């Protein structure tokens, strides 16, 4: 095991911690860790990030359910539209972008580079949201009347689009949306966010191996490609991320995370700027 692998596994623990603390944010680091630190191709990094994040957030969601910090009605009413968007994106937009090449003078932009550019932009947007957005952890409990707002569908579809396109879980959108539309307190919003991210991630990962044909209608599963994944690496990386998310959830019960979120936001901002310029001059 070389130094980069050791650093990668340490990073997976930190990714889990941020997911447990904030209900999102950690996923935005998974692709850069896989791509830059472990030198895995960008499209495979996005695919692998879905499995790793899905495993970690699923266990985190179960933990939140046990601790009564999971709202199932909010999870499925937000989760179903986002799942639909994940599948459509992975089957249409992502493959199209990945196959394209754009030439601007002497500069050649491939689809894989464009996806990483989009990822960098998302990192910068997320970081600014975390730095500038003020959230009150002491939200008063109210009678939770669940209404199916048009706005929640749009945000759910946006989360699914982001998840399908670049493998990010979208927790930075999910958590405040759940607090706004469903009047959940911050702990419930984080717990519910984890299970939504898990569903999106697993659906996006498995969807890559589903072959769908419209004329005539055929549905098949590419088992050969599925088994070629580096499962020993994926399971170990995921296990360490799970330990991190359980630790993060434990910390979240002990401290207020607002100051940590701002500090983490600055870190993600620097990472986003690095990824942007790294791809620009690559």
| Class per helix and strand makeup | mainly alpha
Strand order of the largest sheet: 1-2
Tell me the count of domains.
Answer: 1
Shape: globular
Total beta strand runs: 4
Largest sheet: 2 strands, antiparallel
Distance between the termini: 27 Å
Number of helices: 11
- Poorly predicted sequence stretches spanning 5 or more consecutive residues: 136-148
Helix content: over 70%
Rg computed from alpha carbons, rounded to a whole number of angstroms: 18 Å
The portion of residues forming beta strands comes to 5-15%
What string, H for helix and E for strand, traces the elements in order?
HHHHEEHHHHEEHHH
Mean pLDDT: 80
What do you see in this structure?
The chain has one domain (3-280). Helices cover 73% and strands 6% of the residues. The chain has eleven helices and four strands; from the N terminus they run ααααββααααββααα. It has helices spanning 3-22, 27-37, 42-66, 72-99, 111-132, 150-166, 171-181, 186-207, 223-227, 231-252, 258-280, and strands at 101-104, 107-110, 210-213, 218-221. The strands form two sheets. The chain has a two-stranded antiparallel sheet with strand order 1-2. Strands 3-4 form a two-stranded antiparallel ribbon. It starts with a helix and ends with a helix. Mean pLDDT is 80; it is low at 136-148.
